[in-house]
């Protein structure tokens, strides 16, 4: 089931990426795939054919990659599955980027072959626009709503006895909230530029950008908090309501993605209608700085710049901060793969990955990337062999795959630490006052042997 869900997510990523990338083929500020065309050439058959081919290639690529993704349905060990997942994900990102680069060059060559080069015009300073650039920026006080929501939800988590989890989630949510507030500040600090000779259109264009982007930051700061907290708030609910809340969780995730995309596309359409209402568009030579789909201009003091699709912020690779951010993303992608694959590789191929030891009137449980757990016999209230884990549960730190469940969980409202291989039965359940422990050895006979030792120690 999990492999099917991951496959669906990966295929969805292919087509979402294809759709978002294909937006670059639709003129925005007279830019098509990072190349600025003359206003009277936007509807030229050659340009239309060029844009159409790019869109077709993006979706053809999505279909090819989705076909390759079906390899995830082949039965394999968890470590091999996760490695293949990451390789396919990175292949999607890489293939999409290389396709974009190829068509950026094709577009540039199309402009040269037809002698459509635009003359770079001097930057025009509109003093009134500069002074009133943030008049439609959403007030920062709206962020207080999401901050209060975070504190209230965290208080509910504390009431359910999940203090450690509540503290961790509070830190994560405050970090996300801070990142979105930083994004709001970056939007407010974006310098403005007179794109046309019409002062009114320039002001309206800027007002739209500032309002739409800043309001999206506020919206996301609240909805992300709900998405993060809802699974924890369902831990004490009955099974039927639990299932309902999980469906609600999925709907909210889809709402976040869909509403954000719809909001940004609406902004783009309104901006385009403004620019097409005038013939005085001013070209500032930006194509030179967007030759590889990324902005590189050491002379531009901005770290964050609007992308050319009109739906996001990009970094200026000409600044040291921009280089650090891009390098950090690459490091995160590699580290994520290592963190996911290495423990699973140990679980799959080590002869005794989930080990135990009885010493000093205590049992010690150990596993890959899990802190060793020493459980004194005197603290054990109950020990039993079960065939299934509790139905209602959530992972707070660790791994959860079709074959393994390791790390810190919360099962039936009580903290639990799992060292479980789902292919090995029975499961040893150790109950203490503070938390429960679930353990299986790869050899069921060893699990039963540990049960006997603990059972005998309590007599």
Automatic annotation (TrEMBL):
The keyword Membrane appears for this protein: yes
Swiss-Prot/TrEMBL keywords: Membrane, Transmembrane, Transmembrane helix
Bacterial Pleckstrin homology domain mapped to chain residues: 355-447
Residues annotated as transmembrane: 6-25, 59-75, 81-99, 141-159, 165-184, 211-232, 244-265, 324-346
InterPro entries for this protein: Bacterial_PH-related
Keyword Transmembrane helix: yes
Entries under Pfam families matching the protein: bPH_5
UniProt-recorded name of the protein: Bacterial Pleckstrin homology domain-containing protein
UniProt source species: Candidatus Enterococcus murrayae
């Amino acid at each position: 089931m999990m492999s099917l869900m991951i496959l669906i997510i990966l295929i969805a990523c292919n087509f979402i990426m294809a759709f978002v990338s294909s937006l670059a083929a639709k003129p925005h500020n007279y830019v098509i795939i990072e190349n600025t065309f003359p206003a009277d050439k936007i509807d030229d058959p050659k340009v239309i054919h060029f844009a159409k081919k790019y869109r077709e290639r993006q979706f053809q690529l999505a279909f090819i990659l989705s076909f390759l993704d079906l390899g995830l349905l082949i039965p394999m060990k968890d470590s091999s599955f996760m490695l293949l997942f990451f390789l396919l994900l990175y292949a999607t990102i890489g293939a999409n980027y290389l396709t974009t680069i190829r068509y950026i060059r094709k577009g540039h060559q199309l402009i040269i072959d037809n002698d459509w080069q635009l003359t770079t015009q001097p930057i025009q300073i509109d003093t009134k626009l500069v002074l009133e650039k943030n008049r439609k920026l959403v007030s920062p006080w709206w962020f207080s709503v999401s901050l209060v929501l975070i504190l209230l939800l965290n208080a509910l988590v504390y009431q359910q006895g999940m203090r450690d989890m509540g503290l961790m989630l509070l830190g994560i949510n405050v970090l996300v909230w801070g990142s979105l507030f930083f994004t709001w500040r970056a939007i407010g600090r974006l310098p403005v530029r007179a794109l046309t000779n019409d002062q009114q259109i320039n002001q309206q264009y800027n007002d739209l950008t500032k309002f739409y982007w800043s309001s999206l930051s506020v919206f996301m700061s609240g909805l992300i908090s709900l998405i993060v907290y809802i699974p924890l708030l369902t831990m004490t609910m009955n099974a039927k309501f639990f299932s309902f809340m999980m469906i609600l969780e999925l709907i909210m995730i889809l709402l976040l993605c869909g509403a954000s995309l719809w909001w940004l596309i609406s902004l783009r359409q309104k901006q385009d209608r403004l620019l097409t209402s005038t013939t005085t568009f001013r070209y500032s030579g930006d194509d030179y700085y967007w030759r590889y789909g990324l902005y590189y201009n050491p002379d531009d003091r901005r770290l964050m710049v609007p992308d050319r699709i009109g739906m996001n912020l990009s970094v200026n690779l000409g600044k040291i901060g921009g280089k650090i951010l891009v390098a950090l993303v690459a490091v995160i992608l590699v580290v994520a793969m290592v963190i996911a694959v290495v423990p699973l590789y140990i679980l799959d191929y080590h002869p005794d990955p989930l080990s135990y030891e009885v010493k000093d009137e205590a049992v010690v449980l150990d596993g890959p990337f899990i802190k060793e757990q020493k459980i004194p016999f005197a603290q054990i209230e109950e020990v039993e062999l079960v065939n299934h884990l509790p139905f209602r549960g959530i992972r707070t730190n660790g791994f959860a795959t079709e074959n393994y469940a390791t790390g810190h969980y919360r099962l039936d409202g009580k903290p639990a630490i799992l060292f479980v291989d789902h292919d090995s039965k029975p499961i040893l359940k150790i109950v203490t006052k503070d938390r429960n422990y679930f353990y299986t050895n790869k050899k069921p006979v060893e699990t039963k042997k540990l049960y006997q030792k603990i059972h005998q120690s309590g007599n």
